[in-house]
Amino acid sequence: MQLKQRTASLMLLGTMVAFLVIGLGTPAHGEVIDPGCTGSVTFTGGPTVTESQSLDDVVIVPEADTVQYTGSINIDPPSEPVEINGGIDVRLPFGGWTVVSWPGTTELTEASGTYAYTVPGFVPRGTGGLEVTATHTQQGETCKVAVTMALEGDPGPAALIGATGTIVMGFATLGAGIRKKVA
Predict the structure, then answer these.
(1) 3-state secondary structure of 139
(2) How far apart are CA 125 and CA 157, in angstroms?
(3) 3-state DSSP call for residue 19?
(4) Which end of the chain has fewer CB within 10 Å, C or N?
(5) How far is it, in rounded angstroms, from Cα 30 to Cα 51?
(6) Up-side HSE of residue 4: CA atoms within 13 Å toward CB?
(7) Are 162 and 4 contacting, i.e. CB atoms less than 8 angstroms apart?
(8) Measured between alpha carbons, how far is 140 from 146 in angstroms, rounded to an integer?
(9) Mean pLDDT, to the nearest integer, of 118-138?
C-alpha cells in the first residue's frame, strides 16, 4: 500500500512540475475578441502590435519603453462629447495590473500619440504567457483585443524562490499524506 501511495504522490508531483514548466513557457499570441476598431502600438526598439495580430506571432516586449499608438473605433463621430471607457490590462497568476485606463468623454473616434510605461517588479519577466487586453467602448460599440506577450528579462530570484517554495510545499504535503512506520 505504501509503494502505491508514493508512486501516486510522485506522479502528482511530476504533473505539477510539468504544468508549471508548460504554463511558464507558453508562447505569445494575439486574438481579436470583439472587432470594431483598428489600431497599432509600435515599441521603440521592437515590434509593432496590431488588432489583427496573428495567433502564432510571438511578441516580446521590453520592461520599459515609450510606444507610439494609433487607434480608431468604427462608428460615426458624435456631434457632441459622449462617454468612453477603456484601458490596457495585464492578467497575472495572482491578479492583474492596469497599464493605463481612459474613462471620460470625447467627440473623437480616433486617437494617436505616445505613451511611456515601466512594468512593475512584481510582473514576471522572461516567462511568457502574460495576457494583455486592450478594450475601448464608445456609443454602444466595444472593441477588445488580447495579446499574450513575453516580457524581456530573466525570471529573477523571486521566480526561483517561488518555484523552490512550491516544490518544498509539494514534498511536505506529500510527506504528510504518507503513512509512517510505527516502531
Answers:
(1) coil
(2) 11
(3) helix
(4) C
(5) 8
(6) 1
(7) no
(8) 20
(9) 85
Amino acid at 158: A
pTM assigned to the model: 0.65
Alpha carbon separation from 14 to 8, 65, 165, 170 (Å, rounded): 10, 39, 15, 10
pLDDT at 65: 94
* DSSP 8-state class, residue 149: E
Helices H / strands E in the chain, number of each? 2, 11
Cell numbers at 94, concatenated? 495572482
In this structure, what C-alpha cell is assigned to residue 77? 463621430
pLDDT at 180 over 60: no
CA atoms within 13 A on the CB side of 78: 15
Q: E strands of the chain, at which residues? A: 30-34, 37-43, 48-50, 59-61, 64-73, 82-92, 95-101, 104-106, 110-118, 130-138, 141-151
pLDDT digits (tens, 9 = 90+) for 69-93: 999 998 999 999 999 999 999 988 8
At 176, list the grid cell: 504528510
What contacts 24+ positions apart, CB below 8 Å, involve 163-166?
163/20, 166/16, 166/20
Dist CA 75 CA 80 (whole Å): 14
The owner of cell 516586449 is: 61
Q: Buried (b) or exposed (e) across 106-139, using 16+ Cβ within 10 A? A: eeebeeeeeeeeebeeeebbebbbbbbbbbbbbe
